[in-house]
Specification:
about 525 residues, alpha/beta, Rossmann fold, Heat Shock Protein 90, five-stranded parallel beta sheet
């Protein structure tokens, strides 16, 4: 087959002509050139069939019984999706009036009978290239619009999360404080604990939703993947349809890996959403973890894997499955088998990129009607032992302090809660409701202030601007950002470069104290 035939292999041409000889010659000539061809002998028959055929190019005779080419062309242009399809008129008419009329009803070009078929094939090939270019442009425009929508959603989510996390901070913080004074068998303990648990879950949900709506830089740490499976499981129980059962098959002695926990959760969520769409009538979603030592032989079928120890994580469903042609494309950006408007086509591409960034590998096995299994291999680190800081953290939060802390937050309730937590451990606390007030207070008492706890989003002068001004006064100042807002990449880089820590709201009292003590005792 020639290059032109390969290029046109998927292009569908619809020939509409009452002359059986013209249709036959057109079919043979175009199929020889690599096109797929359908036929109709008049306009009425064509209008009945065109919706199901969905051709890429239409060759249309003008003079036909029942419904002529002018009326057929006009009717085609009124159909959804046919506004831009090339329509090449085949006609023996050469008068200017007929030509003008055909263009008025939507014709793209003319070919005069008797037809030079070699020239016609070249013109159709040109139209096929134009159609592909037009479709590619439309696809890119749609992708740009979708990307802009996602960016807008992420921005909106960040703003809402700031206010929502502030509310959760009050509920979670004060319920935690009340629980400290309660005996586990005392009155109201169970009710208070339920309030505290609900607030904590609300914070987890907000944090996870934010993580899925924005790009995250990889922050790898020692991780047990079972924990990430449990985190995603909790979120799915609140979001996935009830007719889908979730089963966990987790290895209790799972090795540790160096991974970004939030990105692993994002991968699991993307795979879970795909599984949900594959089971519209319900089914089973299974998460499985196990240790795996891969030999040279077992790596031969996966060229990107090297022999060694891995943690194997699989996500399987009992959905409708995929054929081999679909499997070959699933990790390509913007490829999707879902209906228009459902999903972005980025989920599996993002999952593949995250796994590659972890020096891992992801595979997919599926058959139509037999479900799908995604298998992920994470390489283990140098040791499989957990590094636990729990005892050290407990010892640190039991310590008392006498330093002075400047607490900057526009939410009075959060200021009151944090002030009580810190004063309970012996700290002296000053408060300011915005950046301008904080600067004035710091200039006045900078010799006695040991640490500043700074919110980002405040009326007037916000946290980022306040931080900049504080650094101008004292480049060695100790600042911890405490915020429910998710900053953009530039702001986060400034924070990481110029502060001693980042405390995400809603935080626990223990987290607040541990962060403060850690920063104060650092050099």
């Amino acid at each position: 087959m020639t290059e032109d035939k390969l290029e046109n292999n998927r292009t569908h041409v619809f020939v509409i002509d009452d002359d059986v000889i013209v249709r036959e010659v057109a079919r043979v000539t175009l199929e020889e050139a690599g096109f797929m061809v359908s036929e109709a002998d008049n306009g009425v028959q064509a209008m009945e069939a065109v919706g199901n055929l969905k051709p890429d190019i239409i060759l249309l005779d003008l003079m036909m019984p029942e419904m002529n080419g002018f009326d057929t062309c006009s009717a085609l242009r009124k159909m959804p999706g046919f506004e831009l399809i090339p329509i090449l008129i085949l006609t023996a008419l050469e008068d200017i009036e007929s030509v003008n009329r055909a263009y008025e009803v939507g014709a793209t070009d003319f070919a005069t009978k008797p037809i030079n078929w070699l020239v016609l094939v070249q013109r159709v090939q040109y139209m096929a290239r134009a159609v592909r270019m037009m479709n590619e442009r439309i696809r890119l425009e749609e992708e740009l619009q979708q990307s802009q929508k996602l960016e807008a959603v992420a921005t909106l989510a960040g703003g809402i999360a700031h206010d929502f996390n502030n509310l959760l901070q009050i509920v979670q913080g004060y319920s935690e404080m009340l629980l400290l004074d309660k005996n586990i068998d005392g009155p109201d303990y169970l009710e208070l604990h339920e309030i505290f648990t609900a607030a904590r879950r609300g914070g987890e949900l907000t944090r996870q939703l934010l993580n899925y709506s924005r790009k995250l830089k990889s922050e790898k740490k020692r991780t047990n993947l079972n924990h990430q499976v449990h985190q995603v499981h909790k979120l799915l129980l609140r979001t996935i349809p009830k007719m889908i059962g979730i089963e966990l098959q987790l290895d209790d002695d799972l090795w540790y890996v160096d991974a970004d926990p939030l990105q692993v959760e994002q991968v699991l969520m993307n795979l879970s959403i795909n599984a949900q769409h594959a089971m519209p009538e319900g089914g089973k979603l299974v998460f499985k973890t196990t240790n795996a030592t891969l030999t040279r032989e077992s790596c031969s079928s996966h060229t990107k894997l090297i022999p060694g120890d891995y943690v194997q994580l699989s996500v399987s469903d009992t959905g409708h499955g995929m054929d081999s042609e679909t499997l070959d494309q699933i990790f390509e950006p913007f490829f999707s088998t879902k209906a228009p408007g459902v999903g972005t086509g980025l989920g599996l591409a993002m999952a593949h990129g995250i796994i590659e960034n972890h020096n891992g590998h992801i595979t997919c096995h599926s058959r139509p009607g037999k479900g799908t299994v995604f298998t992920i291999y994470f390489p283990t680190g140098e040791t499989s032992q957990e590094i636990s800081l729990e005892k050290a953290a407990k010892k640190e939060t039991d310590q008392r302090g006498n330093e002075t802390i400047l607490l900057v937050d526009d939410d009075h309730s959060i200021c009151t809660y944090s002030k009580r937590c810190l004063e309970h451990k012996g700290y002296k606390v000053l408060t300011a409701a915005d950046g301008k007030s904080a600067l004035a207070l710091y200039r006045q008492k900078m010799k006695t202030i040991d640490l500043i706890l700074l919110d980002l989003i405040m009326p007037g002068m916000g946290g980022a601007k306040c931080l900049q001004k504080l650094l101008e006064i004292d480049p060695d100042i100790k600042v911890v950002i405490a915020s429910g807002y998710t900053p953009d990449d530039n702001t986060m880089q400034i924070i990481q470069r110029n502060t001693r820590g980042y405390l995400r709201k809603p935080y626990f009292g223990k987290q607040l104290l541990q962060t403060v003590q850690s920063v104060l005792h650092s050099h």
